[in-house]
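Much of our argument rests on the idea that a fold can be written as discrete symbols. In the encoding step, the backbone of a single protein was reduced to a row of integers, each denoting a local shape. This step matters because it turns folding into a mapping between discrete strings. For completeness, the protein is quoted in full, as a sequence line and a line of structure tokens:
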Amino acid sequence: SMEEIFKAKGIKATLEAMGVAEATESDKVVLVAPDIAENGAVVPIKMSSELPKTEMMALLVAENPNALAGSYEFIGDTPPVVSMRIKMGQSSDVVALVKADGKYYTATKEVKVTLGGCGG
């Protein structure tokens, strides 16, 4: 259920809750995030997919209490591009997950947080 997915901790458990058995790192998944976030309360993230038949994109933050920060479905010819702002309590790997043509792909970037966003 979506509730279980949002409550899952860590990348692996969240992917399992989402029913993702395996995901391949791909340079066609584009993740734009700051190397250093001065304020963890507002971290700007942009992700896009250059993979044909992109159906879904999700953003996961490894060290957050709930790894899944957002999930987006794409229907028809909607361009698979998402800009969002996320909260990060501490430095963490951020993972963009893309489902394209029934398979899963990822891109990962480390974001260092200098000031905690979760009441730190």
Summary: The chain has a mean pLDDT of 92. The beta strands are 23-25, 29-32, 36-37, 43-49, 54-61, 68-73, 81-86, 92-100, 103-113.
